[in-house]
Structures are given as C-alpha cells and as structure tokens.
Amino acid sequence: MSKALTTLLFSCILFSLSVSSYAQTCKSYSFSSNRVYASCQDLPVLNAFLHYNYSSSANTLDIAYRVTGVTTSNWISWAINPNGQQMAGSQALVAFQNSSGHIRAFTSSVASTNIATLSESSLSFVVSNLSGSYLNGEMTIFATLALNSGMSTVNQVWQVGPVSGDTPQSHDTSSSAANMRSVGTFNLLDGTTI
C-alpha cells in the first residue's frame, strides 16, 4: 500500500472517530459506574446531555448532567430556575476539577447575572448524593434533588465556563454565545422541552 493511501486511510479513520464523538446522543451512552437512567435529553447547545430518573410519588429527580469536549480548565453547571428561563435566580449544581486533581461539586444559588464567580451556597430544595467526574474530555455532575410537591415542569439552565486557579469564572455572555441559549422548560413527566 502506498504511503499516500495509508495516510489517507489513517486520516479517514481519525475523522470518523472524531465525528462520532461529537454525534453522541444520550440514548446511546452507558455510564461506566453502573448508573442507569430511564430518560435523557440531548440538550441543544454546549455539547450537553441530561440523564435522569424522576419519581413523581417521591418528588425526586436523580440526574447525571454530562458535557463532552471540556477540559480541566472548565466548570460545568446544571440548574433549575423557579423564576424563569434565565441564569438569575437559578438553583445550580456546579462542578470542576480543582488544582489538586479532584472534582469539586457544590451547590450555588445564583442571585444575579452580575457576578464574577459562582459561590457555594444552599439551594431552595434539598440536594443529596452530589458528586462529579472528569474523564477523557467529559465532565459529569451526579445528584438527587428533592423537588417541591407537584413540581413536574421546571425551567432548566445549563452552562460551561472557564476556571482560573480554583475559582469558576464568568462564562461567555456575548449575544451570539451558546451560553446565552442554554435555557429551556422541561417536563419531567414526558421529557418534552420548550
């Protein structure tokens, strides 16, 4: 086989592998930690996916929020906003890899959009089993949320931003940024989004 043909074949294989990693869907994904989620959403921007189990009788939402194509210099966040489809008022789950190489996962109540960083604070609902992981350009937040009784539709907000030192910094807020389109209404019963 000629060197040019070998190079072309190798390039095609690499291209195929890279395209398939960006063409992931949540339904084709399996967690290595033996976690199983009955439902999932391919979120429309930021290479993000939401895997979840919702129990209407227990008012709990067990989630895995997963983002592909990130680095250890990024933070990720998934939030419920009881006030609307916006960042201000969001009740957020945040994760990033700190300088010692460990994933730091915490909750942050986002009071306004005029903040330089996400600070750890309590949410308006109880969060348990909060953890995170980072492997091969993929970061995930795992958590169980105790929702208010009868809450079956929520406003969701998801984000990715830069980390400086051990501090999450403000994400891109330009009008054309994907971060400004990462909101939606989510029906927990049937999985539909608006």
UniProtKB/TrEMBL annotation:
It is found in: Membrane. The keyword Transport applies. One of its GO terms (cellular component) is membrane. Residues 46-161 form the DOMON domain. Residues 1-23 form the signal peptide. Its main location: membrane. Keywords: Electron transport, Membrane, Signal, Transport. This is DOMON domain-containing protein. The lineage of its organism: Eukaryota, Viridiplantae, Streptophyta, Embryophyta, Tracheophyta.
